[in-house]
What we know:
This protein is 36% helix and 19% strand. It has helices at 2-18, 27-30, 120-126, 140-151, 183-196, 209-221, 235-241, 281-292, 301-304, 316-321, 324-361, 382-394, 398-405, 407-412, 459-465, and strands spanning 33-35, 39-47, 56-64, 67-73, 85-87, 91-95, 97-102, 105-109, 112-115, 129-134, 159-161, 200-203, 225-228, 245-246, 296-299, 366-368, 430-434, 447-452, 455-458.
Amino acid sequence: MDRLKVIFLGFTLIGLVFSQSFEKLSPKVKEFVIISDDEFIIENVRLIDGTGALTKERMSIIVRNGRIISVDRTKNNDSKFISKVINGEGYTLIPGLVMLHEHMFYPSGQRRFNTNQVSFPPLYLAGGATTIRTGGSVDTYTDLAISREISAGNIPGPDMDVTAPYLEGLGAFIYAMPIISTPREARNHVKFWANLGATSFKAYNLIDRRTLKAAIKAAHQRGLKVTGHLCSITYREAADMGIDNIEHGFFASTDWVKDKKQDECPRGEDTRILDIDLNSSEFTDLVSHLISRDVAITSTLAVLERWAPGRKPPPKGAHESILPELRDQYIKNLKRRVEVGGEKAVKLFNRYMAMEKAFHDAGGLLVVGTDPTGAGDVVPGYANQRTLQLLLEMGLSIEDAVKVSTYNGAKYLERDTEIGTIETGKRADMVLIKGNPSMDPEAFRQMTIIFKNGVGYDSSKLFESVKGWVGVR
């Protein structure tokens, strides 16, 4: 009965989101809208459709009532009966980003993470994210309320798959995390938050095997999924329990730690990961095991790259979006982190990228997210754009980088029949980019119009609207 209730609730919320139109948006949201027509055509645009197919030139996309009704060569489309024509020459169109490790909180120091319910939703949308999953929550009541407000058209932001409070054991480094120490507590936790509308669960560093197994079973009985940032439990152990997703690529894997004790998170640095031959069975067997168990891996390179010196700094807009007092704090934290990391951090970052690409190339479901935590330099929206650039740096083609950032996330969320690609019949969630990211990855910083449900939002205006407030509201 509980599972039926969740399924019904899911269909209700999805129906509400899908029916959202310009007329149903609040005046506050309409301020950011620059395309409100029920029907329009984008002509002569470069199309990367999210399916992995090769980039197509001089394409036309017709949208009517929030749906894509035609994708064809411009010369084959008859636009004379469509009053709103958008000239896409010199622009690239990709699907709206579907990113699976996002948060509504920001590190403000001393184990405190402030909820940013005002600034983060418009920032995510500005950066091309039309659907996100919160990869962990410290203020779930607020996250659920934000999701409802976005669905109702009261505030601008992406559709949200909301994760419940963390499933964590004793010793959590964040005060706001609950302590879940027994299978019974895990089952009660899942039941309580699923009843309130949480649609995902996330295990954390110190949970033990019995407790996580109980949580996974309880979530699956409700038709819900579990991901994890693991440490006390290895990736192989979690896969055997039925976990659906693992966060941070192979950064958090303890499968290769020498003398690893069950249900204990190893303390101290272990860089044996640098010595593993990625062509050896030691690595490929784990990759095959994860794939055979349908475990998705989330790449979060944006939050990992700052450990290494010499990395490209966040753009000016990201820097200016942060509250000045917190901005000074993150600059100091970042400097200290880079000094500690040194050249070893460079090697580790390159190894993480190589491992993720190997997983992807082997047929694993690689999804992406930004994880706006770290030293405070990972700012929503700006970091989402950076993620696409990092996937290209990893070695993915432009088509695969877009697919990983759009279709793969939609597939994981089981919404790929609605979103994730630009195809006839799909919801018109799309991003119009000035320039050609195939030739210049910096073009991903030139997102101009973000279409959600066929409504076009001004990216730059959304970014500007919360300047100076990240970290506090």
